[in-house]
Amino acid sequence: MKTYLVTGGAGFIGSNFIIYMLSRYRNINIINLDKLTYSGNLSNLTSIVDNSNYKFVKGDICDKDLLENIFNKHNIDYAINFAAESHVDRSILEPEIFVRTNVLGTVNLLNIAKKYWRLADTFESDKRFIQISTDEVYGALGTSGCFTENMPLDPHSPYSSSKASADLIVKSYYDTYKMPINITRCSNNYGSYQFPEKLIPLIINNYLNNRPIPVYGDGKNIRDWLYVEEHCRAIDMIIQKGKIGEVYNIGGHNERENIYIVKYIINVLNEVTGNNKISNKLIKYVKDRKGHDRRYAIDPSKIENEIGWKSEIAFEDGILKTVNWYLNNKEWLNKITSGEYQKYYENMYKDK
Ligand code: NAD
Ligand code: TYD
After folding, report:
1. Is 47 a member of any domain?
2. Which segments constitute the NAD(P)-binding domain (predicted)?
3. How many helices (H) and strands (E) does the chain have?
């Protein structure tokens, strides 16, 4: 019976990963360590909270004593590090917390895992540290080409720079100690339980509240979108089949301009709700993000050829599922967007 330590498991991708894994395997234990920052939400996990193979620990990956206790008490086989400050716009306003959690927290986790997994000069071979990283560490692309794993890192935002720093530290634990690590670099995720500061749930939330939908700059920046369950499946496969020390890009060939995404989702919402009064008039072009990366696009050939993972959910199907999820979970959305979120939103968009 393998034991997974999932950090950041109350966030968007972490909670989807826990739900995915517990629905797939009966013979695993999952410990979810999460600080419950603004983006961590235990109600994401109500469907599995009573599962006897699941345990929640509230805490910070920067807390050495707490991590020591967890590794001491449980025989952790896999550490999957989702815990992070994850929003580029927030990183532009407050970079320090990104360095603390994303860099120092990762080093902390590596150190404790190394201490418990190391046998004399080598490592227990069936352990694995998975660093959940992002394609943003590669920087921005021009009009052609895709990110491959061997590209130099060239991050621009404080967020992506903190993730790139963490990637380099994780890699150094393989290069130096032969620690069994993998680094995954995924493109933009969308799906259920995503905090509505990110583009897709923000579009849905603003539409439902008849609020302008802010489009940064000319709206022609390009992101490469992946449905979150596909990301979870890829991580599971990398834990099973990934070659120690390797980096894997994860993406589904779904490049779209932001303005296309906004218009497409408004149309889907119009169709699903039957509310044709709301139209593209909600779109509001606003001041561009500072240092806004123009284009991201993943080349997933390595994970496709070496691991056998391939994206299977078409963008249109993933968006429809996502829109329906938000429409069916308005209580979740209303709760998460009341209070602090309103202050965040007003502050973030006041100069735009
Ligand atoms: P999220 O913001 O929804 O969740 C982050 C979670 O980490 C929250 O539950 C939060 O409470 C927790 N957390 C934050 N600081 C912590 C700390 N110090 N100790 C313990 N827990 C802490 O983020 P997400 O979108 O789910 O992203 C998860 C991971 O995936 C991140 O590492 C992110 O860089 C990476 N990633 C995200 C995307 C995307 O599109 N969302 C794409 C590629 C990679
Ligand atoms: P986001 O969801 O923040 O992800 P990331 O910046 O990590 O890629 O943003 C996705 C794209 O959408 C990015 O090009 C910025 C743009 N964007 C807007 O145009 N308006 C918005 O209100 C937000 C949040 C993002």
Report:
1. yes
2. 5-320
3. 13, 14
Q: Which atom of ligand 1 is nearest to the CA of 188?
A: 40
pTM above 0.85, yes or no: yes
Across the range 37-52, mean pLDDT stands at 97
Question: Could you list the residue range(s) of the whole structural domain that residue 244 is in?
Answer: 2-190+224-254+292-313
184 to 131, 242, 315: CA distances (angstroms): 6, 10, 21
Both tokens of 218, joined, read 């000319």
Backbone angles phi, psi at 34, to 5 degrees: -145, 140
Q: With a 6 A CB cut-off, is 137 part of the ligand 2 pocket?
A: no
Closest ligand to Cα 288 = 2
Rounded CA-CA distance 161/303 in Å is 24
Compute the mean pLDDT over every residue in the chain, rounded to the nearest whole number.
96
Is 135 a residue of the active site?
yes
Please name the residue whose Cα sits nearest to atom 36 of ligand 1: 134
CB 300, CB 252: distance < 8 Å: yes
Q: Is residue 211 part of a domain?
A: no
Protein residue with its CA nearest to atom 42 in ligand 1: 188
Tell which wins on pLDDT, 258 or 275: 258
Ligand 2, atom 14, residue with closest C-alpha: 221
Q: Is the per-residue pLDDT at 305 higher than 90?
A: yes
148-199 tens-digit pLDDT: 999 999 999 999 999 999 999 999 999 999 999 999 999 999 999 999 999 9
- The finding on whether 108 has its CB within 6 A of some atom of ligand 1 is no
In this prediction, residue 275 carries a pLDDT of 87
Q: CATH number of the domain that 28 lies in?
A: 3.40.50.720
